[in-house]
């Protein structure tokens, strides 16, 4: 459970199977175009961003990290039919999130989410192009804060 929402299980749980685009696309189906748009847009705006897959024993699954200058921009977990993107922000990003044109529900999620030390998360379950647009807004906030 995250922020009061039951999270569907991640599907890349076999440590011996390293995720490839073909594997990811076979799981996320028609959300492939949204994955590709996200990757293209992030790399276009931030050419120094790097992609990294790691298997995490604590969650028993593979997670994707987008990194820029040693800072994790966001995490992606693959679920059946789509993917979820999670950002973690410190308190100094609060004003930027509150003053952004992100959907009210997303700003509320940040306001009320459980703290992990000094950070709080926002998770987007990707269903539409709007979700990618909101993700890119959060990337910009993350880069600046």
Write down how many β-strands occur, each being a DSSP E stretch of 2 or more residues. Answer: 5
Strand order of the largest sheet: 1-2-3-4-5
Total of domains: 1
End-to-end C-alpha gap: 27 Å
Structural class by secondary-structure content: alpha+beta
What's the alpha carbon Rg, rounded to whole Å? Answer: 15 Å
Summarize model confidence as the mean pLDDT.
Answer: 94
User: Helix fraction?
Assistant: 25-40%
Extract low-pLDDT stretches: none
Output the number of helix runs. 5
Shape: globular
Strand percentage, roughly? 25-35%
CATH C-level class is Alpha Beta
Walkthrough of the structure:
This protein has 145 residues and is of the alpha+beta class. The chain has a single domain, classed as Alpha-Beta Complex (Aspartate Aminotransferase, domain 1), CATH 3.90.1150. Helices cover 36% and strands 28% of the residues. The protein contains 5 helices and 5 strands, in the order ααββββααβα. Strands 1-2-3-4-5 form a 5-stranded antiparallel sheet. Helix 2 runs parallel beside helix 5. 23% of the residues are buried.
């Amino acid at each position: 459970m995250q922020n009061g929402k039951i999270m569907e299980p991640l599907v890349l749980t076999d440590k011996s199977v390293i995720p490839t685009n073909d594997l990811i696309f076979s799981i996320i189906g028609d959300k492939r175009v949204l994955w590709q748009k996200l990757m293209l847009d992030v790399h276009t705006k931030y050419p120094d961003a790097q992609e990294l897959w790691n298997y995490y024993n604590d969650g028993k699954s593979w997670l994707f990290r987008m990194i820029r200058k040693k800072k994790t921009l966001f995490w992606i977990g693959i679920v059946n039919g789509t993917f979820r993107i999670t950002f973690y922000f410190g308190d100094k990003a609060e004003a930027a999130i509150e003053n952004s044109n992100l959907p009210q529900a997303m700003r509320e999620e940040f306001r009320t989410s459980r703290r992990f030390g000094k950070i709080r998360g926002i998770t987007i379950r990707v269903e539409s192009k709007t979700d990618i647009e909101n993700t890119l807004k959060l990337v910009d906030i993350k880069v600046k804060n």
